[in-house]
Amino acid sequence: MGQSDLDNGTEDTVYDGSQETSLGNDSMNTYKPAFVEDITKHLSVQISLILAYSLIILLGLAGNTLVIYMIILYRNMRTVTNYFIANLALADLMVDTVCLPFTLVYTLLDEWKFGAVMCHMVPYGQALSVHVSILTLTVIALERYRCIVFHLGQRLNRCTSFIIIGLTWALAAILAGPLAIFREYRHEEIPYIDLRIAVCSEKWPNGTNRDAIIYSLSVLLLQYVVPLAIISYAYVCIWIKLKNHVSPSNRSDGIGRRKKTTKMLALVVVVFAVCWLPFHVFQLASDLDLILKFKEYKLIYTLFHIVAMCSTFVNPLLYGWMNQNYRNGFLMFFRCEHKPDSIYPDGSFRTRSLRGMIVNGHNDGQPATAV
């Protein structure tokens, strides 16, 4: 998940060897366990962590599942942008199911309880989901840039959008590959208390921290800096174009919808950037061995990880707050109302018998009112 292995800042109270440095780019909390002065062992802290992670998991599962459900359920929600939003929701669901439960258990128990196979697969799945998220956000920004800035009325068709989604997963799988390959599941002996525990950690070819730092810096650039620079440039150009655009009165509604949708999508990117910035800065400092001796290292790491994971459930809240289509669909779902065939921004619902008149003349059977 774009996170490093977690070393406990108090481990020198238990181990007499050299400190195992922060090695990677996953949220496994992979570290040598410590049993002295570890604030995360306090009952009140553990209860708080359980509640925080549980709330994020529940909100993420509910919100992102509902987003995907709506796009499948309502025909006029099946637009190219919404397909990409569904892909983003799928990546967030992967975080909630593959990342957070394992991270919480490992943080609380200081031992890897899930075996050798999961030691390789879990960090890989974590990194994969974050790469998919940022690549999808980049694709959305570039697609809107192509259509709005260059006045290209012909949007991507459904087949092309699915091909692009497949390519984002393929590229993300390649970028996350090292976290599955350079991994080690082993048992650690703790002679002072006669304890033998299972540990899941990264193991790079040269056995030094150099490869880990190179990989972490590369991922920081590819997963955060470069994509956000591209996205920022695209949305700035889009905003300038829409702000200066003068259109006939019969097109003013369409321009207004584009502005609202662009504002919503840009805010999604801002939330992603803000949530992940503290963690990326902390990880880089860890890789450079600048903060590993802090007594509260493990707790600070966990708190920054929680902030980063908040991005997995915020998106559905933004959709419901800023987009009338999603808001209407959410309200219908929670009211358990009979599903119509389509939902529309004015709050009305169309039945199947009227669809032919409503969508007639719109590209690919998709009303212009959809996101």
From TrEMBL:
Keyword Glycoprotein tagged: yes
Molecular functions (GO terms): neuropeptide Y receptor activity
InterPro entries: GPCR_Rhodpsn (IPR000276), GPCR_Rhodpsn_7TM (IPR017452), NPY2_rcpt (IPR001358), NPY_rcpt (IPR000611)
Chief location: membrane
Protein name: Neuropeptide Y receptor type 2
Keyword terms: Cell membrane, Disulfide bond, G-protein coupled receptor, Glycoprotein, Lipoprotein, Membrane, Palmitate, Receptor, Transducer, Transmembrane, Transmembrane helix
PANTHER family, per database record: NEUROPEPTIDE Y RECEPTOR, NEUROPEPTIDE Y RECEPTOR TYPE 2
Membrane topology classification: Multi-pass membrane protein
Family: Belongs to the G-protein coupled receptor 1 family.
Region (Disordered): 1-25
Keyword Transmembrane helix: yes
Sequence ranges assigned to domain G-protein coupled receptors family 1 profile in this UniProt record: 63-319
Gene transcribed to yield this protein: LOC107712299
Subcellular location: Cell membrane
The organism's place on the tree of life at top rank: Eukaryota
Organism: Sinocyclocheilus rhinocerous
Lineage, uppermost ranks: Eukaryota, Metazoa, Chordata, Craniata, Vertebrata
